[in-house]
Design a protein that fits this description.
The chain is of the alpha/beta class. It has a single domain (2-202), classed as Spore Coat Polysaccharide Biosynthesis Protein SpsA, Chain A. It is built from nine helices and ten strands. The chain has helices at residues 15-23, 43-53, 68-78, 97-108, 139-144, 157-160, 172-180, 208-222, 227-236; strands at 2-8, 30-37, 57-62, 83-86, 92-93, 112-120, 126-131, 136-137, 154-155, 187-198. Helix 8 (208-222) runs antiparallel to helix 9. The protein is globular, with a radius of gyration of 17 Å. 37% of the residues are buried.
Length: 237
């Protein structure tokens, strides 16, 4: 089984499309764990209705906002699958995402894989060209640049165990990938775009300087790298 972790906060406009992209998967042995972080826009009620229609959808409601890292970690803690993956409440998978990821992992005995994806705006219009991932990345590669998206990372937790996200404001996923790559040699890329990353106005993906600041926080506060090495890595971005 594949466990899908989806944090949500005031995502009523998008989450139904996100859930539908999971329901439409060609691979059907999954559980979707949605952790709603104190939404106030009707997202909770929508999630409950969606879960009533499909028993594979499970949910947790936080009465106080705890942030995306802790929300995702609740999902990781409760995951029952052999594989673990993440899908944010405004992103979408292609129907073959899970099938392709499972088959690629098992065929090659890869414990950590990720795939290319399309980049769209809020209304799913083309925004940037497709992001095509490299063949593989190591821990040292990832320090220099991170091609692993949260919406396509696919982890064989039955083999390597569960790892949790650091509790930082942004780039929690980056911190998690670095943690995993201290234990496995490589994460392996799938060239075919298998997801749609919805880049909304005001998102971190549209603000390069702010994105660099949060990467710096990962270097200093999570990886505990020294100042000068961190500065060197920042200059490579």
């Amino acid at each position: 089984m594949v466990s899908i972790i989806t944090p949500s906060h005031n995502s009523k406009l998008y989450i139904e499309n996100t859930v539908q992209s999971v329901i439409d998967q060609t691979y059907t042995d999954w559980e979707m764990i949605i952790i709603d972080d104190n939404s106030t826009d009707g997202t909770r009620e929508l999630i409950a209705r969606l879960a009533e229609k499909d028993s594979r959808i499970k949910y947790f409601f936080n009465d106080v906002s705890i942030g995306p890292a802790k929300a995702r970690n609740i999902g990781i803690e409760n995951a029952k699958g052999q594989f673990l993956t993440f899908l944010d409440s405004d992103d979408i998978w292609m129907p073959e995402f899970i099938q392709t990821s499972v088959e690629y992992s098992i065929k090659n005995n890869y414990t950590f894989v990720f795939s290319s994806y399309e980049r769209k705006d809020e209304n799913l219009n083309d925004l940037y060209t497709d992001f095509i991932v490299p063949d593989k990345v190591s821990y040292s590669d990832l320090l220099r640049t991170c091609p692993i998206s949260c919406l396509t990372a696919f982890i064989w937790i039955e083999k390597i165990g569960k790892f949790y996200m650091p509790d930082i404001p942004k780039r929690q996923d980056y911190g998690l990938w670095l943690r995993i790559l201290k234990h496995v040699k490589y994460a392996y890329g799938i060239k075919t775009p298998l997801a749609v990353y919805r880049i909304r106005k005001g998102s971190l993906s549209r603000n390069k300087f702010l994105a660099i600041w949060y990467v710096w926080q990962v270097y200093i506060n999570v990886e505990k790298l020294n100042f000068f090495y961190s500065l060197y890595l920042i200059c490579l971005l």
